[in-house]
Amino acid sequence: NTLSLISDLTEISRRLFLLALGTGVPGHSQDGDSQHQDCQSCQSIVEPGIPASRRILPSTDKLEAMAEFAAGAGHEINNPVATIVGRVQMLLRHETDPERRQSLATIGGQAYRIRDMIGDAMLFGRPPAPCLSAVNLSKAIEDVQYSLSEAILTSGVQLMVTLSKAVCLQADETQLKVVISNLILNCLNILEPGGKIEIAAEEETVGTVSMLHLQISDDGPGLSEQEQEHLFDPFFSARQAGRGLGFGLSKCWRIIDLHRGRIEAETIPGRGVTFHIFWPIHPTEK
């Protein structure tokens, strides 16, 4: 029936993006020899008496290919979805039978779900060019905290922010907040009540460029081998619900890359994950 077809279309859309990435079916384990073959860099760091940490960088080539696919396929999938939504709205205006109205509403809801998914894909594939200005990092974090205040409160997780001094980044304010928000949500989705998220920052010089090294850490269980391999892949999920779902982390990579920065993750088994973001400081701060 029509509802079943809409549900199938939703799943097909999701799997198309997975196939484009070559990640396969979520939860499907890879052979040990192929672990991290797509990672741009997976580097273990060992210190005496401390469990080895591993740095994970996004696979730039794979994400670039995914972005091209998302932009093109998103447009093609969006057109029939728009037709379905329009038809549902038209039928609802004249339908009086409660059962049929409920079925139409469900069809419309599934179509809107596809539309939102495709919207994320197209933004990931061809995001708007950043509108750069001097953005106060402290104020941006405060705004994100306020917008996520209910989620933080209900999660029972403690959020701590430690900034050595006020600093302005060369950034699109909205896009910077999207990055901070997605990274905090990524931590919230994995932590149990009583967990802790820490945000810290310090200035660094990378080559000849003044950058801010922003660190967003959680004290959760860390990342499995499979999660390390696919951390930045859109739609990847594994045992730990919430880690890497949707376009959250791949969108963060895209925005940071547009700002000529970089992102990487560091994990220690059983001791959480730290996201390292290197973002250019506004010229007036130098």
What can you tell me about this protein's structure?
The protein is an alpha+beta fold and 286 residues long. It has two domains: 2-26 and 62-125; 32-59 and 130-285, Heat Shock Protein 90 (2-Layer Sandwich), CATH 3.30.565.10. The protein is 47% helix and 22% strand. It contains eight helices and nine strands. The strands form two sheets. Strands 1-2-8-9-7-6-4 form a seven-stranded mixed β-sheet, with helices on one face. Strands 3-5 form a two-stranded antiparallel sheet. A hairpin with a 5-residue loop joins strand 8 and strand 9 (273-280). Helix 1 packs antiparallel against helix 2 (60-94), helix 1 packs parallel to helix 3 and helix 2 runs antiparallel to helix 3. It is globular, with a radius of gyration of 21 Å. It starts with a helix and ends in a 6-residue tail after the last strand. Mean pLDDT is 78; it is low at 23-50 and 239-245.
Q: How are the SSEs placed, and which strands pair?
A:
Blueprint lengths: L1 H20 L19 E7 L2 E8 L2 H35 L3 H28 L7 E4 H11 L1 H7 L2 E6 L4 E4 L1 H16 L7 E11 L2 E10 L6 H6 L17 H11 L3 E6 L5 E8 L6
Parallel strand pairs: 4-6
Antiparallel strand pairs: 1-2, 2-8, 3-5, 6-7, 7-9, 8-9
Helix pairs in contact: 1-2, 1-3, 2-3, 4-6, 6-8
